[in-house]
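Bug report

Summary: C-alpha cells for Pimeloyl-ACP methyl ester carboxylesterase differ between web form and batch submission.
Environment: batch mode, default settings.
Steps: 1) Submit the sequence below via batch. 2) Compare with the web form result.

Sequence submitted:
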Amino acid sequence: MDLKMKKEGKFDYLETGGSGEPMLLLHGLFGGLSNFGAQIEAFRGRYNVVIPTLPIFSLPLRKVSLAGLVTHLADFVEHKNFDRVHLMGNSLGGHVGILFAIDHPESIASITLTGSSGLFESAMGNSFPPRNNYEFIKKKTESTFYDPATSSKELVDEVYNTVNDRNKGIRIVMTAKSAVRHNLAHKLDAITAPTLLVWGNQDTITPPFVGQQFHELIADSELHFIDKCAHAPMMERPLEFNRIMNNFLQRVMERQPSAA
C-alpha cells in the first residue's frame, strides 16, 4: 500500500480516491487498516476505497460501546459527504456496519459481512484477558486463522501490546460486552440492501452456522463458504474472497445502473 493516513478532526482514515462509489472497509476489535491490503489493491481502480479507524481506543470512556462506534461512523460518512456506500465489515466491523445500515438505509448501496459478530461470537470472553501471557495471546491470535502461520509475529506482538495496555484492555472488554448486548436477531429483517456473506468453513469465533443464520434473517442475501479458512477470509484467502466480492458487486451494479 502506498497510501498515507489522513487525519481530519476526530477522523483517521485511509482513502484511495478516484471517482468510483465509496467502499468502506470496517475492521474488527483487534483488527486494523492493514487487514485490507488485498482489497485495496483489488478494488481501488473501480471504487474509492476508504478505511476509517474505528475509535475503540480514543472515544471518551463513557462513550465506549457499539452505539458510540456507529455514531462515529455516521459522523464520518456525513463528514465525507458520501451519498451511498458499499460497506464491508469483518467481525466487530460487520456488527457496526449492520447497525449503521439499519439506522441509515438510504446511505447503503450494498453490505458485505465476513465473520461478523452480532448473533454469536466466541472470542476472548467477557473478562479481562490475561496480562503478560504471551503464549495465551499467541494462541488466541492464531485461532483467527486456519493456518496459524498466517498470524505473523508482528500481529501477535500488536495484540499482546494492546492487551497489556490497561486502558486499551478495559476498552476491549467494554466493547466486547456491548457487542454481546447488541444481538441483531430481531433487527436483521430491517436490512433491505443486497448483502453478501462470506464465511470460513473453519471459523471457530463466529462458526459457519452464524453465517447461515445471517442468511436466513437477511432477505436479500447470499452466502458463500471458503474452505481451509477461518475468521478473516479477506486476509487468509484474499484471491477467493475478492473474486466472490467482485462478482457480487458487479451484480449489484447491474441491478442499480443509475448508481454506476
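Above is the batch result. After comparison, the two runs are identical; trailing whitespace caused the diff. The first helix runs from residue 37 to 43. The chain has one domain: 6-119+183-259.
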